[in-house]
Amino acid sequence: MVTTSRAERVSAAFVKITNTLVADYDVLDLLHALVEASVDLLDAAAAGLLLADPQGELQVLASTSERSQLVEILQLQAGSGPCVECYRTGTPVVVEDIASLTGQWDEFRAAALSQGFRSVHAVPMRVQGRTIGAMGLFGERSGALTPEDVAIGQALADVATIGILQERTIRESAVVNEQLQRALNSRVLIEQAKGVIAYTAGVNMEEAFGRLRSFARANNQNLHDTAARVINRTLTL
Length: 237
Prior knowledge:
This protein is an alpha+beta fold and 237 residues long. Helices cover 56% and strands 15% of the residues. It is built from ten helices and five strands, in the order ααββααβαββααααα. The protein starts with 5 loop residues before the first helix and ends in a 6-residue tail after the last helix.
């Protein structure tokens, strides 16, 4: 049955995210499910997610588009921006009109406007007083998200964060670090694989990622292993 009401779509999104929380789940797949569900449900044109590595340095781990990924990367390079500030403070950061920013986050402002974004709402990834990252919800119009959208976005982020920091990983910090480091290493492989697919198939980077992820899911493989096969040329997509 096709879901039509917003309540049904919200429920389906939470089910989709929680369904990823199984043994040996793929952290990157969980994070991509989070940003995709956020854009689908909320008044946002794109989303990007920053997660702290074992050394506390933020890295881009998921995005719904190449342009949102670019803005997040430029925030990291500048060391400032709404998502970076959100991670540092553990509280949401709202910019209703990016164009109105003057003397603050200049590099972020220029990057966001160049990609067609006019507003951003940064949501912290936090649980039990610990902040491990931030998700940026980018809008193509100025203005803030509605209180309902804010609540849904934060709830989605909270569920995903709990998934990353399950009880078994909270008890053993080395496991948390191992998972995060593996996700970071996987991200490098995935970016390389996207480039290979884009070049060989003559498609853009978003289509390349779509092919990679679809194959992984259809064949019950994780993104890391599928990307590795593409890079070593044992798989052509």
